[in-house]
Predict the 3D structure of the following.
Amino acid sequence: MLAQDVPPAAVHSARAPTAIGIGEREFAIAVYRPRVHPGALKFNIKNLGEDVHDLVIRRKGRRVAGLTAVVKPGSTATLRLTLRRIGSYQLVCTIADHEARGMRATLKVVR
Ligand SMILES: [Cu+2]
């Protein structure tokens, strides 16, 4: 296919998402790229601990997105998400009392 046959929207969506490494363990969430620009993101999540964990993304206390299944110890999961709003997002584990015990982190979307 010639380049001019591709509509602009398709070209834009074909751009690779920004990868964000996430390490989860008892009881912390490490974000290896805590500041990103607005756009398509791909969270590469690894459970480095011994309990199951999950990942939910909130903005101002409201759920924005999250994994649909838990991540088992030693396993990985990916979450693709487009964030356009500038500001702080909270990354938390919603298993049992993990968030209260420290499994929370901040992701900032900046210009
Ligand atoms: Cu957890």
Strands lie at 18-25, 28-31, 35-36, 39-47, 56-59, 62-66, 76-83, 87-92, 104-109. The pocket of copper (II) ion is lined by residues 53, 93, 95, 98, 103 (CB under 6 Å). Residues 17-109 form a domain with the Immunoglobulin-like fold (CATH 2.60.40.420).
